[in-house]
Amino acid sequence: MTLASQLRATLAAAATGGPILLQGDPRDADLAPGETFVSAAVLVPIVDRPDPGLLLTLRPTTMRKHAGQVAFPGGRADPEDADLFETALREAEEEIGLPRELVDIVGTVDRYRTITGYEVTPVVGVIPPDLIFMPQPAEVEDVFEVPLAFVLEAANHIEHSVEWQGHERHFYEMIWEGRRIWGATAGMIVNLGRRMAYGA
User: Fold this and answer.
1) pTM listed for this prediction
2) How many structural domains are present in the chain?
C-alpha cells in the first residue's frame, strides 16, 4: 500500500466523530456586522519516504504580515480557482515551484479559522522525495522538512496562552531544530495529528 493510500484510509476512518479538534482563533465575536471569513487553502505536503516528512516554508522577515513565521504554502482562493484543491496547488506552485502534477492529493482535513479573518482548508498531498524547490523570494525565505512523526506526536504539541486585545488567546507551538512552528500552522498540524491518531 502506498503512503497516499494509507493516509486516505486513516483519514477516512477518522472522518466522523472522534477527537476534539481546534476550530481556530476565537474571532467570531470580533467580526463586524456583515463581515465573513475569507476562504483560503494551504497545501500540507507530506514527503514520501520510509520515514515520511512534512514540508514547511519560512516567511521572510521583510513581509508586512506573518514575517518570519513558519507556514504551509497557500493563500486566499481566487475567483478563477475551480475549487480549494486548485487554490492549494496553485499557491504551492507559485510560492515554492512545486509542480502540481507531482502532488498526489489525499484529501482535506478540518477547516481552521485564523485571527486575521481567513477560513483555511488544509489540503493534504503526498509528494516525491528530494525535489528541488524554487522559492519565490518575496514570499518564502526557506523550504524545509520536519519528520512527520515528530509533528504529529501529541507530546510535542505545547499549549500556550497570551492576552491579546483584551482576550486570552490559546495557541500551540512545536520546536524542531530551532524552527518555531506555532499559530495557525501548528493548530492545523494538531488537528491532523488528532485525526490520524483517531483513525489509526
Assistant:
1) 0.90
2) 1
